[in-house]
Automatic annotation (TrEMBL):
Family of this protein: Belongs to the class-I pyridoxal-phosphate-dependent aminotransferase family.
Upper taxonomic lineage: Bacteria, Pseudomonadati, Bacteroidota, Flavobacteriia, Flavobacteriales
Keywords: Aminotransferase, Pyridoxal phosphate, Transferase
The species this protein was found in: [Muricauda] lutisoli
Protein name: Aminotransferase
Cofactor(s) listed: pyridoxal 5'-phosphate
Superkingdom of the source species: Bacteria
Length: 394
């Protein structure tokens, strides 16, 4: 009966990161010792002070439907966080709380895009951007960046990608999957191009902002002339290790926020009550409360780069944020390893899963066919063992 499914769902790709995680679970169930480096999920437990806030919310009987756009005191905490961390002023009518930053992105796409509108995606980009744009009947326009520019789009590349149909630019900084972080000067360069095209809006995905080793996060909404045309996306999944709590949010022009609230009211309504109460406590806490996680990610990054650097054929740059490395492994294309011919990044990633028992993700899912994504959101013991296995089978 699958032929009765809508064209919309039949044409949608399965999330490559979730598919690889499912494959890894399947192999584990068969008794194989799989090390999972495919998911973007911190391996830390949620900090105790946030757990206590959730328990208190249960005791205080926060069990009713929540406002569609989020509790007012949570939106106040988000507004204060934007001002404290990003020097951005968003009123409560410009903030919408959603069930994860992924829903925030989907809301924005559905609210802003019309059929045929083009959305520029610097590649590599997060795996779901392209399909979210397509679901909204937009057209993703990929701009391939290079490892020698740390996978960052240049103003010249942006200008060349713009057409009369361009409606939006979507990017993340720090970037999933590359770990790239745009500097203030780099964002100003992109903004100068965008100022010549005043009808183009920007989605700035900043969910990894605190996992940043570059010395400071910069929001493009804070660049001169960009505030009124930028939708800033954030959430608590990564920096606070709250992936399963599913809380994301936007700061945006009021008309976009109202549109997102209208849409969300017909799709999921308000986000989980207990999670929202816990997030108030998380956002009101100083960033120093989560610095131990950021420091550990920094140590792991250096460890992974050192170990992968010993493997011939891995072309590496130094990511400045998030918890991924994105090596170019195209040197292996055309080679035969243990009877398996490697034609592309998908072949390579599958080879590592089947022969090294290590789960990674093909770069093709992120718009870059020469790379694979390796998450270092795992223990040092697991990382050392995984890379030892990879080295052995190569």
């Amino acid at each position: 009966m699958s032929n009765h499914l809508s064209d919309r769902i039949k044409n949608m790709s399965t999330s490559a990161t979730l598919a690889m995680a499912a494959k890894a679970r399947e192999l584990r169930n068969e008794g194989k010792d799989i090390i999972g480096l495919s998911l973007g999920e911190p391996d830390f437990n949620i900090p105790d002070f946030i757990k206590e806030a959730a328990k208190q919310a249960i005791d205080e009987n926060y069990s009713s439907y929540t406002p569609v756009d989020g509790y007012a005191d949570l939106k106040t905490a988000i507004s204060n966080k934007f001002k404290r961390d990003n020097d951005l002023t968003y009123g409560l009518n410009q903030i919408v709380v959603s069930t994860g930053a992924k829903q925030s992105l989907f809301n924005v796409a559905m609210v802003v895009l019309n059929p045929g509108d083009e959305v520029i995606l610097p590649a590599p980009y997060w795996v779901s951007y392209s399909d979210i744009v397509k679901l909204a009947e937009g057209v993703p326009v990929e701009v391939l960046t290079q490892i020698d520019t740390d996978f960052k789009m240049t103003p010249e590349q942006l200008e060349a990608a713009i057409t009369p149909k361009t409606k939006m630019l979507w990017f993340s900084s720090p970037c999933n999957p590359s770990g790239s972080v745009y500097s203030k000067e780099e964002l100003e360069g992109l903004a100068e191009v965008l100022k010549k095209h005043p009808d183009i809006y920007v989605v700035s995905d900043e969910i990894y902002e605190h996992i940043n080793f570059a010395g400071g996060h910069v929001s493009i909404a804070g660049i001169d002339g960009m505030y009124d045309r930028t939708i800033t996306i954030n959430g608590v999944s990564k920096a606070f290790a709250m992936t399963g709590w599913r809380i994301g949010y936007i700061g945006a022009p009021e008309w976009i926020a109202k549109g997102c609230t209208k849409l969300q009211g017909q799709v999921t309504s308000g986000a989980n009550a207990i999670a929202q109460r816990a997030v108030i406590t998380a956002l009101e806490a100083p960033v120093s409360k989560i610095k131990f996680m950021i420091d550990k990610f920094h140590e792991r990054r250096d460890l992974v780069l050192d170990l992968l650097g010993e493997i011939e054929g891995f072309n590496l740059n130094v990511p400045e944020g998030a918890f991924y490395v994105f090596p170019d492994i195209s040197a292996f294309f055309g080679k035969t390893l243990n009877g398996v011919t490697i034609n592309n990044a998908s072949d390579f990633s599958l080879y590592l899963l089947e022969h090294a028992n290590v789960a990674t993700v093909t770069g093709e899912a992120f718009g870059n066919p020469n790379c694979i994504r390796i998450s270092y959101a795992a223990s040092e013991k697991e990382l050392k063992e995984a890379i030892s296995r990879i080295k052995a089978v190569l």
